[in-house]
Amino acid sequence: MNRYLLHDGISHAGGFFRKNRVLIALFLTFLLSMMIGSWAIGVAPNTDCYGMESVFEQYLSSRSGQPFYMVLLSSFLAQLVLFVAAYVLGLCALGFVAAFGIIIFKGVSVGMVGGYLYLIHGLQGVGFFALILLPGLFVSGLLLLLAAKECFCFAVRLFRLLLTGSGIEPVRDLKLYSLRFV
């Protein structure tokens, strides 16, 4: 009996990976681009890093005087640009390439911030990144991965429509695509 349970568990895991292969590919791209971003900070000249330090400290000082809801709103608006880009580029036949571009941009940005904090502030910077920045980055990153997945899938369907002339019902599929972004 256990042999069958193990077999069923393996087949379900294979089904999970097969169903979510685009999301997994986007997630791995995000992780790789984070590593590239942190590596890029490590090899950047010191003058660039110290220039970033003044920008980062100005950002912190301007945010520390604001109420919490204003900080939350400005962070949301900064992320909104990426979500709107994912939505609009999903409406393009070659938008599936742009889905990876958006994820690479976000990953390199997060990696550069994490690498910068470690380079300049050491373990205190890692602690700041993990406790203050990472929870918000996790939520926004997860939502952006889901948006990029929808962008990729819809753009592939549009590309298939251009090549074969079938495979999409424009009004119904556009409504479904729009609802998934809300």
Describe the 3D structure:
This protein is mainly α. It has 7 helices and no strands. It is elongated and about 55 Å long. The N and C termini lie far apart (45 Å). The model is unreliable at 1-9 (pLDDT under 50).
Considering the chains and any ligands shown, give keywords for the structure:
90% helix, 7 helices, disordered N terminus, single chain, 182 residues, mainly alpha, elongated
Pattern of helices and strands = HHHHHHH
- What percent of the residues sit in helical stretches (DSSP H or I)? over 70%
Looking at how many chains there are and whether they match, the oligomeric state comes to: single chain
Strand element count: 0
Amino-to-carboxy terminus distance: 45 Å
Quick synopsis:
This protein has 182 residues and is mostly helical.
Outline the fold blueprint.
Elements: H1 2-19, H2 21-43, H3 46-64, H4 68-90, H5 95-121, H6 123-164, H7 170-181
